Fold:
Amino acid sequence: MHKLLADQPGQKMLLLGNESIARGAIEAGVAFASTYPGTPSSELSLNFFQMSKESDLYFEYSTNEKVSLEAAAAAANCGIRSMCVMKHVGMNVAADTLMTLAYIGVKGGLVILTADDPFMFSSQNEQDNRYYGKLSGLPVLEPSSVEEAREMVAYAFDLSEKLQEPVIFRTTTRLNHSTAAVEFGKIRTPITKGDFKKDPFNYVTVPAVSRKLHAKLLKNLGKAEEISNTSEYNIVKGEGPWGIICNGVSYNYVIDGINDLDIEDKVRVLRIGISHPMPGDLIKDFLKGCDKVLIVEEGEPFMEETVKAFAQEAKLTLTIAGKGEGLFSRLFEFNPALVRECMAKYFAVPYKPAALPDLSDIPELPQRPPNLCAGCSHRATFYAVKKAAEGMDAIFPNDIGCYTLGFLPPLSMGDFLICMGSSTGTSCGFSKVTDKKIISFIGDSTFFHSGISGLINAVFNNHNFTLVILDNRTTAMTGHQPNPGVDMKELNLEGYGQISIEKVVKALGVSHVSVIKPYLVKKSINTIKEAINFKGVSVIISKEKCSLYAKSLKQLTEKVFYVSDKCKNHRTCINELACPAFFIENDRVKINPSICVGCAVCAQICPEHAILPLKKNSQ
Amino acid sequence: MDTKRLIIVAVGGQGNLLASKVLGEAALFSDIPVRMSEIHGMAQRGGVVESAILFGDAKSTIISDGEADILVSFEPSEALRALNKCNVNSVVITNLYPLPPFTAVIGKGVYPDPNIVQDLIRAKTAKLIAFDAVALAKEAGNVLAVNMVLLGALIQTGVLPIPAENVKKAITTKTGKFFAESNLKAFELGFSAAAKEK
Structure:
């Protein structure tokens, strides 16, 4: 049985933040869950996926976050407890749905999880999604620890049903990817079958209905603020003339900082767990007892602005600070020492930081950036496109996935990237206003997610570019989740459809469509040459399974290669492919047999044909 | 109780996440509060994987610069790169078997001399324990048991309040029957290797 399904209240287990949230949802009786995978939320969905195979939970990997939220919204409006999981930027994709779903509301609880990524460990921006609460008028809950996340999910479902509207559950990477001992609670039996009661004058958002619904939403916001004022998740701790208001993981740094600075008797802390709507009465009361207040929050001054507005309403003139020079930044994530230092400075507490060693004489170390894996089919495709486009003045828009790493030398295939699916849309603009050849790249999952609409636009508006669809048969970057093109039977899973990218592209009216096998270098280069010389929209589908995925399916051939005596040290292999299986020993190129997966691309480009298959028992 | 802070750095694929799991489990067996965090998005793509583990009453799950009591590195150049996490009282343990990054292989950057690496760490911290953990893992019968060798050395230092028996128990429960024997042997070899260091 899946470890998170164990019906043993009181059991203690070390869980990742994402696992703790998944367990919390199971305990709350979640029956419908949907997602589009995105770090740092991916393990949460993975656990739902696994549990759905051995319980009554329905789970799906949806095409994108908007579809995912719509599916969950409908399930919730049939009275089913539902959860929709995404990374922070996914909320932008789902925002159209979110904004009006807030008007409609829900019947069964709906919790929308957004995993924010301060410092951008694996994201293109570090937007602060608490503003989605303000923008939509929906409540935002924020846990501070892995343990609290479990119980707060159940609270989120209850709150959603009480207010009859979705609740946003906001985490940050540091919570999703932290681990702690979590005590299990009781599992509530999920209700898995719902019913939809027709009520068009509350469900069909024509203007006359929406005017009524917006008024309802605002009324609800008032109710939500009353709840926020008395909630056990907006807590005041300690006594003293100094006040600290904080949220999320910053709360931990504040508590540790108070202990380290030995100021327990001087500080009161207000930990905000419901950050929208902010608890106005509670905050005004808190401010009245303080000489000065420090706001500790990662990201934007979301609480700070609201707290200052409350102070104005209460005619209070005490000093309130958070972001600003000498204090906290809007950039990146916090850490314990940073918070401790700002607290010491703001409250003028003597503090001597740990003696750091002098590191000025440490030599500059070679970087260790992530790299496309050995035998990665993307490397083979990038190489073939580079060769086919040699001599052409070209722009290469790229997209979001492992293949984004192709922008690094020596491949250097990636000139422009905004967000999921942007390769196709930006290609339209580039091709219209420049005379350059536009060759863009997108992965299979990203194509289904949102790249497809840019391609439809290109065909309709008669743009001129080549789109290379890097079809590695899985969603590789986030950990090999399925997408609509995946053959689910290979995973021994029945009951799924499968969509052919080739048929879709042809049906869209793309008149030049070709399919390549990127490990066949010469043939691929020739096919690509033909496609990029076509005037109009051409699509190349480069079809080869992700080598890590193939390995997990036990489909990799065991044939590895070695560099024979014929090698004349041209180093074309290293200089043009940069496969991590290569290394240099005594000034000669070698291949690490434990890393090589036998794609044979290097063997095909070696000018001396010196790279040969390693026969077992030889060498 | 006093908080002890441990940083583990490794190159993707070296198994430091399993090492963290084993330590976490061992802390649970020992009734010692434990929290950890890791950055592991690109682990399979050959990047650096860093885990922070805090034993004791601290609420934070990360460790600021200069605040690690002990640093365990699975690779010598990565020990040097992570030295900003240490202070003059920190203990450092490193595997000496080098894994030069690809950038150094293609001539972008120079891989540091292992002797210089050791001299620099010794000069800036309280103690360095350095040995070839890959050789010991091979001796234990499992070249992938580098993580268990280094766990052995870590526990030998006594910096963490966790008894060796509880780590061994966690190794047995977390790494499965097939590997438990070689992993336990690797742990013992690492433990002895650290005991030999002055």
